[in-house]
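hey can u run this one w/ s-citryldethia Coenzyme A bound, need the structure tokens asap thx
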Amino acid sequence: MSNTETAKLELDGQSLELPVVVGTENERGVDISKLRGSTGYITLDNGYANTGSCQSSITYIDGEKGILRYRGIPIEQLAEKSTFVETAWLLIHGELPNKEQIDSFRALLTEHELLHEGLHKHFNMFPASSHPMAILSAMINACSCYHPDIMKLESEDTFESASARLISKVRTIAAASFKTSIGHPMMYPMPALRYCPNFLHMMFSRPNKPYEPSDEVVDALNQILILHADHEQNCSTSTVRMVASSGANLFASCSAGVCALWGPLHGGANVAVLEMLQQIQDNKTDLNQFMEKVKDKESGVRLMGFGHRVYKNFDPRAKILKAASDKVLAKLHVKDPLLDIARHLEDVALKDSYFKDRNLYPNVDFYSGIIMRAMGIPVNMFTVIFAIGRMPGWIAQWKEVHNDPNARINRPRQIYTGHTQRDYVPLEKR
Ligand code: SDX
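ok here u go:
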């Protein structure tokens, strides 16, 4: 962004003018790329809460207003009108696809939905108790061993096929890891089925009993995947960009993103929310007592699914999922007492000064698990579903790094706080 605005910094009697970068939504960033060279100083920012790692044109969030847009289109419109495959194309290519583009993208997804038979053997080597996120990360990398061509993405075509391969196979891997964990035979994808119904088929069909998902379940899965598809520079996306900055291939970068997403403070929160609600129900925990624990730092108890580094207002995705949870459970004729507990916790929290003073609101994970549970998705697969949804976002962000002529390997500095110089002490003198 060309701009003449500057920021003045006074350091050790020096006055430094730093350029200010202004984005298309008038966000401002002080460009400190010359800071160390001119002053010897670096900046420190715990958790990067005030630090931009890049300029990006993919996703925009206004945390104060609760706005989320993919390539400028509001998440509310995409959640209502789009499909996950169309949204994936939008994120990766920057525009909504026309009919020819979406048809060829769907054909590529179908072409790449199978796993190499050699990959199938890997599943038999994992213990049944293996966590599906561990399998997902391992198998994404293993895919590249069977498709060496995706290691070097020289052309748009090879990128197209590699990204379609990843978006398509991540479903097949996820379903295979679930089948392995319950000792059921893996189900092959069916080319006649579209993205979401095919995934649900691979998850829930058996050789002797096909599974026909209802439109409600298919629509709910589409919406959940759309809502998770990208979210600017969150922990796992920043991990993908970090790995991409070294020149690592798309599969290695997204496999690293899966590992970062797994953490309970990030994508793993949807599992932690369900476990929290289940525990409250099983132990008949008094909600006000539980909230007192949450507000007591010493307890180490957090209200999972609440709070967000960027949203200091409602997470728009949580709003959509909260509204959808009633509808989906009613259509599936599911009555879930955990939804009532979640609603009650939200009511209590939103009236409590501890949460209001800290701008803590429900985030995407607070209601997503309730809906996935109603769809019959097992809790240990919740974060895998998040990863399937986030895959197009990771691919789009990887591509932005890969195609940026000014991209540099990410290598943050530090302030050293260890021993100053001291001599080696021979073993006999220690
Ligand atoms: C996702 O970044 C993204 O975009 C992520 C994501 C995406 O789409 O990629 O949106 C997906 O990861 C959503 C977040 C899922 N995580 C959870 O729901 C876990 C519970 N939430 C928290 O752990 C926390 O809110 C984080 C991790 C989400 C944000 O952490 P921050 O920004 O580092 O905030 P913080 O820990 O510094 O909290 C600020 C204050 C602290 O109190 P004080 O020290 O000021 O007294 O708020 C408190 C915290 O103790 N606080 C909470 C709380 N979250 C913050 N207290 C109780 N319960 C909580 N959930």
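The first strand starts at residue 6 and ends at 11. anyway lmk if its weird
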